[in-house]
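User: I'm new to structure prediction. If I give you an amino acid sequence, what do you actually give back? Let's try with this one:
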Amino acid sequence: MNTIDCTPTWEGLLPMLLELYEAKNVKPAKRQETRREMGIELRRMAQAADKWNAHCKEQEAATSPEMETLGDLPWEKDTEGAAESI
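Assistant: Good question. You get back a string of structure tokens that encode the predicted 3D arrangement of the chain. For your 86 residues, that looks like this:
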């Protein structure tokens, strides 16, 4: 069975959300409910973006060239005879 993914993108939803947020022809009670729902969705989007950014930073740190040179740190080098000098 084939399925079609119709998941909207945040970039595609944003113009509609902004237009709804600024709509003047909506009854005040409905406008308040609509803004509350939009706030929930925008918060969810912000949380997802924060998680993605944290993931990207972790991946960058794990693959950065600096990570490859950790073996060159002074305490990682051969310390034969170091105990006698203390």
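You can read the tokens as a compact description of the fold. Here is one thing that stands out. Residues 11 and 84 are 64 Å apart (CA to CA).
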